[in-house]
Amino acid sequence: MKDDRWADVDNYLESRLGVEDEVLRLAQKAAADAGLPPISVMPLQGKFLHILARLMGARRVLEIGSLGGYSAIWLGRALPPDGKLYTLEVNPHHAQVAGANIASAGLSDKVEIVLGPALDTLPALAVDPGPASFDLTFIDADKPNNAAYFAWALRLTRPGGVIVVDNVVRNGGVADPTSQDPNVVGTQQLFEAMATETGITASALQTVGAKGYDGFAIAFVEPTGGTGQGA
Fold this sequence. Notes:
The protein is α/β, with parallel strands linked by helices. The protein has a single domain (3-230), classed as Rossmann fold. Helices cover 42% and strands 23% of the residues. The chain is built from eight helices and seven strands, in the order H-H-H-E-H-E-H-E-H-E-H-E-H-E-E. It has helices at residues 3-17, 22-33, 43-56, 70-77, 92-104, 118-125, 146-156, 182-196; strands spanning 60-64, 84-89, 111-115, 134-139, 157-166, 200-209, 212-221. It has a seven-stranded mixed sheet, with helices on both faces. The chain is globular, with a radius of gyration of 17 Å.
């Protein structure tokens, strides 16, 4: 099946499922107009995250990688009135665009943008709100640090919580043991960490769509005494 067919299916599903509203469309336009790269989640993926957060009854969400705030809007809308989303962003320009989009969505009271390299700002979240504070963690940042972000996610996500990592197939490159691409190598290191972590049950799905061939990984953080990967 050709890539244009994948895009056609995305367009069909979006039209039937009423995925985006004007706020979300304008957030994407604002990001494009500001020169941000077109690498945010697709509308169907954003709605998937929204539904997942609602299914879990998530009250606290951690996002590593804000970009223009598109996925933060999807996740923020899933939260109850007293819910909180912390979204981490290293680029000040991206954070400014995300902040404006989040404000336009009426979510400034629920979403806090944390500016700086995530590996520098995550330790503060381990103090406040503290370890195991988050119901859902979404990782969609620089891929060479995927394993390090996952390690922090394990510390910050509560037992019974979920960790989702985007862009883990890398157009099939993740299966190439000879790859020198830092994004592929970082993702392979993520899967090595998942494979050896006994406190989770994890899976991954390949995806195709308007943005091409990729996939995401999902890990359930086992409650104390859980069975882990062999469940």
